[in-house]
Amino acid sequence: MIALKTFQESLSEFSERFDDLAERYDHTINNCSELEILIDDYSKFITNERNEEAWEQLELQESSDLNQLVMDLRKKSALCVAIMEKYRALKLQDGNAEIADYFKNIESCIEEEFGSFQITSESKVLLVGSGSFPMTPLLIAKRTGAEVVGIDIDDEAIKLGRNVVKRLGSGLNIRLEKISVEDLDFTKDVTHIIFSSTVESKYDILDQLYALTNENVVVAMRYGNRLKSLFNYPLREVDEQRWKLVENIIRPDHVFDIALYKKV
Ligand SMILES: C[S@@+](CC[C@H](N)C(=O)[O-])C[C@H]1O[C@@H](n2cnc3c(N)ncnc32)[C@H](O)[C@@H]1O
């Protein structure tokens, strides 16, 4: 078992490394390797069973300082994952498309995303938080032929993301937009919705989507509880009159798990 003190020290150290590397992002690939190493280290840390017990002890402490550290880590790691996608997009522009372990981890899970509610060529898929390197839209469109729309709140992510789609997704039905779900005409026709795990307001958007979507829509909410909540926004209770949890896909070796919701 990892001692609680060592565990807490690791958290503080990760927090400092995230701050340092987020500050050093300058829209070039200058600090890319360092951030890749950090994200890989962090992914291993939060999927390491041996840290589970220390996490449980930490939860029992109910310390406001520790709570703050956990919330900060969630925010900082989300920011750094978004930056890492920017690096990957910038590297692709420069002709260097190697894949860090973190991306292999994400890519290998996309197939299981919708459990028993599989995507077909007729499906219309919306991804909330498409990022600068839109792997999910690319893989879905490539494998199924479905129409995919990705939305993001970050101008740079949309610009870089479109470039990636142009290079890797030629001929695929993928669109990336900086737009909200209520302003997007596509929302009313979507059959499948995926929420990126690091979208802080994902449950507020889910609530909003109830009135905007058709009755058969299925929602894949990426999330992380317990130790994984250091890297993901966790699962939340939903309005039982509106959404029903129909499947919970737990993936011990992956950085996030997936909850599937359908309308009641
Ligand atoms: C790490 S990235 C994408 C994750 C990864 N591509 C995937 O497939 O899971 C998460 C993105 O979510 C975006 N984001 C955060 N909050 C959002 C919101 N409320 N609406 C849309 N996008 C959001 C961020 O700007 C960031 O680009």
TrEMBL record:
Swiss-Prot/TrEMBL keywords: S-adenosyl-L-methionine, Transferase
Entry-linked InterPro entries: Methyltranfer_dom (IPR025714), Nicotian_synth (IPR004298), SAM-dependent_MTases_sf (IPR029063)
Domain Methyltransferase: start-end pairs: 120-231
CDD domains found in the cross-reference section: AdoMet_MTases (cd02440)
Protein name per the record: Nicotianamine synthase family protein
Species this chain originates from: Bacillus songklensis
